[in-house]
């Protein structure tokens, strides 16, 4: 699954109340995004844009309503690293009708998952 990068720009995007700028005719895809304010903006790149863009997104351009190219920065979500390590402490207690496991990870903070191998 492709993650949605975040697009940060410092002006208004192509779709405003003013007439839209003209773009090079060789461009196969043009997508407008309506923005209600100026200044520093943060928005998710639409899936349609990601589907049409190159894998590295180097072909994305951002223009204001006057046709001026606007600098922007893409932020890509960073996936947390998986930490695989043995438990600091692992204790199993067998009961008459249950089994209890006490596990101390040795890690700070919460864990997302646990795999037990038998």
Describe the protein's architecture and organization:
It is built from 1 helix and 5 strands. With 118 residues, it is mainly beta. The chain has a domain at 1-79. The strands form 2 sheets. A 3-stranded antiparallel beta sheet has the order 2-1-3, with no helix packed on it. The chain has a two-stranded antiparallel sheet with strand order 4-5. The longest helix is centred in the middle third of the chain and has 6 residues, at 47-52. It is rod-shaped.
List the helices and strands and how they pair.
Elements lengths: L5 E4 L31 E4 L2 H6 L19 E4 L13 E6 L4 E6 L14
Antiparallel strand pairs: 1-2, 1-3, 4-5
Quick structural overview:
The chain has one helix and five strands. It is mainly beta. The protein has a domain of 79 residues.
């Amino acid at each position: 699954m492709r993650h949605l990068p975040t697009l940060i720009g410092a002006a208004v995007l192509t779709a405003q109340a003013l007439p839209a700028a003209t773009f090079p005719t060789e461009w196969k895809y043009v997508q407008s995004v309506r923005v209600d304010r100026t200044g520093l903006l943060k928005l998710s790149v639409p899936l349609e844009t990601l589907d049409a863009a190159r894998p590295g997104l180097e072909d994305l351009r951002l223009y204001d309503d006057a046709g001026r190219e606007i600098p922007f920065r893409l932020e890509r979500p960073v996936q947390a690293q998986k930490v695989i390590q043995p438990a600091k402490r692992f204790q199993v207690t067998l009961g008459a009708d249950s089994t209890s496991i006490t596990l101390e990870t040795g890690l700070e903070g919460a864990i997302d998952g646990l795999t037990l191998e038998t």
